[in-house]
Amino acid sequence: MGTSSIKKLGVISILLCFFTLVKHAYADCNPSQCIEIEKWRVGIALGAGAKTNPLVGGDAIPLVIIPDIAYYGDNLYLDNAEIGYQWMQAPTSALDTFFSVNTEKAFFTFWHPSNVLGSSGNFLSNAIGPSNASPFDDRRVSIDEVKSRKWAIDAGVRWHKRSAHSQWRITAKTDATNVHHGHQLDIGYEHYWSLNEWQVSLASTLIWKSSKLVDYYYGIDQQDNVLRELYYDASAGWQPSLALSANKKINQQWQWLIRTSVTWLHSGMTHSPLVDKEYTSTVFIGLGYVFR
Amino acid sequence: MRVLLACLSMVLWNEVCAEELEFSWQIQPTVCVNQHVGAQCHFTLSVQVQNQRQQEYCVYVVTLSPQQLFCSSEALLQKDLTLTIDDNTSLLLKNVQGETFLQQPLSVKSTQRSTRFRVNNPWSLF
């Protein structure tokens, strides 16, 4: 792990420690975190934004339309790309098991939302910020040159610990579809504020990805039909992440939405010839409409 | 000056108290419990009104606007009311001039949970 990675981990760790000092209380279900039972929530957000793509030759993902679809029964739930069952729902804690779509493949996908919903990804990518070149610039391999990666479904278990204005989440996931054969662990803390009429949350997360997961998507081997000297075994590592989101209700249906996040990638991934950025970031500003 | 203010405040306090003491009531229960959230809630509540000066008054339930339930001028009235409400509301006691003397909040509770925490934040697909 490089010095910069240690610094990023340090920042996240300090934030996690700071947040834990905040006085905890009983968790109330505020409207932005909660959903009515046995009622579909269907929403659509329209705006401007993008998610950067760390891959060589990969376009940023324009965020022009963001759907929000969820249905919660007493225990079963569907929440966007995740379906699960909650085994425990205490006032301050919960335990879920779930299946969810692994999103690593999105960076490789031609039929990506960028090709369906939006305009040029390169323009948005440049607008978000410059690329951070890896130390292996001379060994770059474009995603167009390697074998296509597959989508995977992960099976996971998640534990929530909530207080009045915060939430801890620990999530462990493993490949349920024999695609990457890897695992992932997320340890996250989220804090909520009300700022005038805005509901604001800041989340810090440490994400660990196993070597099999990282190597399947970002490693290069004989299946990729590139020069042997470009082969790369990607390795496991921790990826710190920060996310800030804010929403302001205009009326029962409409709300303003602002979302921004950054995830710093670990060296076992960024040293891959397929990767030419050290982070991914997301920005979105728009209006959300919830059908009622 | 202090003595004058003290006297004035005592006089005003006595007047207010005197008006409030003209009416008093006991209402049981004040919470209606139903099974499903958002469903109409039926309950019977017992109202006992003490009206020392035997003035005419009326009792209202607040829906979109106050709806009159009954009027009386009896010194002591005991009455059972059957109400159907679908949200938190209030009972009001008003005199004939329409001044509100007493107010009792009524609430609706459900045995069924209405909401759950989402496991993920809204709009977090990407």
TrEMBL record, chain A:
Family according to the record: Belongs to the MipA/OmpV family.
Annotated keywords: Cell outer membrane, Membrane, Signal
Keyword Membrane on entry: yes
Keyword rRNA processing on entry: no
Protein name, entry field: Outer membrane protein
GO terms, biological process: peptidoglycan biosynthetic process
InterPro entries: MipA (IPR010583)
Localisation per UniProt entry: Cell outer membrane
Organism in which the protein naturally occurs: Paraglaciecola mesophila KMM 241
Residue runs in coiled coils: none
GO cellular component, one term: cell outer membrane
TrEMBL record, chain B:
Name of a matching Pfam family: DUF3019
Signal peptide: 1-18
Source superkingdom: Bacteria
InterPro entries from the UniProt entry: DUF3019
Keyword Signal (UniProt): yes
Keyword Signal: yes
Keywords, in A-Z order: Signal
Name under which the protein is recorded: DUF3019 domain-containing protein
